[in-house]
Amino acid sequence: MTITTERLILRPLTLDDAEAAFEWTGDERVAKYMIYSTHESIEITKEWLRSVKTSDTAFEFGFVRKSDNKLIGSGGIRLHDDGFWEFGYNFRYDCWGMGYATEASKAMIELVRSRYGDIKLKAECAAENTASAHVIEKCGLHFAGFGEYQSYDGLKTFKAKIFKL
């Protein structure tokens, strides 16, 4: 499945994306608030890419910039047991602040709405990550409270802002 927006192509990730993806998964600035720890080798990125799965209730995409056909990020939207669809995203550091996260997130939300109609949405980010909170609000979600999340490896714990619609 592929989605086209004004500046991006959202398409499935493949193992061939490892080198481009490592540009952000291996960047400490990008991984700072993420649920994964910084990838220390391209092999870890390849392992992650092998694990990425898409289904009727979980969509994962690579974000390709149309202007130069470069993979600049990834993200997804998935249905949780509580009935909320949750979305997230991750971009190369040099692509921050350009509106790509909002553009990609809105496209993923629209995909799910077009398939399932009126849906409940949620997203969360580290409380300190004000840029990500702003993206979530631009997608129409409202602050619902604080929580906490931990990285997959248990090495990082963050106070989180939770948003819902």
Automatic annotation (TrEMBL):
Keyword Transferase part of the UniProt annotation: yes
GO molecular function, one term: acyltransferase activity, transferring groups other than amino-acyl groups
Name of the molecule in the record: Ribosomal-protein-alanine N-acetyltransferase
Assigned keywords, A-Z: Transferase
Superkingdom of source: Bacteria
Pfam families attached to this UniProt entry: Acetyltransf_3 (PF13302)
The N-acetyltransferase domain, residue ranges: 8-165
Presence of the UniProt keyword Transferase in the record: yes
